[in-house]
Design goal:
By secondary structure, this protein is of the alpha/beta class. The chain is about 30% helix and about 25% strand. A hairpin with a 3-residue loop joins strand 13 and strand 14.
Length: about 250
């Protein structure tokens, strides 16, 4: 998305990332209920990817597994403007969320503006190495996924069940050693100076940290699965992401 047609972020918008929703972690559904019932309010919601442990457009078992959350998101989209940046656990989602603005990995990062500042948003995995990029293309191929879904049905959903069970057992709440140096190197792919970027925001790494580099700032959101927190954007003399803890 070019700067000329950048998305305008609204004051008080909420950002939530990496909920990794599963049968043992249903906090994301509670968060959406709070929005639906007016307990938590926002004019705009950004889902920064990996909201589910496994949700794929062509894999029918995952639709049934998360049906109540899918339905709630679609209902909520009638009240709140929702932008969904696909992650590496949730992709090919357009047909599941027809009223949401869905951004596949190929459309990330998305260019946004907020009080005259340019902000880039992505799940965080769009500019990994060539092996990972090749993997993402293969695993998102609709024909391949349809074939895998048929095999999954013939095997009584054994493939989907196994993947979901494995995801439930993964420990995802850890700090990455040398994360600042890693990001400083990675961030060069954003062409910060040429594009006049003020802020880069990502999920994916679950680090809940913010760094200032030359001429711009970098925010990595926490994993909602780990911290039960989302972030509300505001502006005084600068862009601020206020961490909001979700109880219950």
């Amino acid at each position: 998305m070019s700067p000329e047609n950048a998305l305008e972020i609204k004051e008080g918008a909420l950002f939530i990332s990496d909920a990794h929703d599963n049968v043992t972690r249903e906090g994301f559904y509670r968060f959406l209920c709070m929005l639906d019932e007016g307990e938590l309010q926002t004019p705009q919601l950004f889902l920064m990817g990996d909201m589910f442990d496994l949700l794929v457009g062509q894999v029918s078992y995952t639709h049934a597994h998360y049906r109540k959350t899918i339905d709630l998101l679609n209902r909520l989209s009638r009240k709140v403007e929702i932008h969904y940046l696909e992650g590496n656990h949730d992709f090919n989602l357009r047909r599941l969320f027809p009223c949401l603005c869905v951004y596949p990995i190929q459309k990330q990062p998305i260019s946004c503006r907020f009080h005259g500042k340019r902000i880039l948003l992505s799940h965080g995995d769009w500019n990994e190495g060539w092996r990972y990029r090749l993997y993402t293309r293969l695993i998102r191929n609709p024909l391949l996924l349809s074939m895998l879904n048929l095999l999954d049905i013939l095997r009584s959903r054994a493939i989907s069940r196994k993947i979901l069970k494995k995801q439930q057992q993964k420990y995802i709440c850890f700090k990455i050693p040398g994360f600042r140096a890693f990001i400083k190197q990675k961030i060069q792919k954003y062409d910060i100076g040429i594009s006049k970027i003020d802020f880069v925001c990502e999920g994916h790494y679950h680090q809940n940290t913010e760094y200032r580099f030359d001429g711009f700032r970098y925010r990595n959101f926490s994993s909602f699965a780990c911290d039960k927190s989302c972030f509300r954007i505001s502006f005084t003399d600068r862009v601020v992401f206020e961490e909001v803890l979700i109880r219950g």
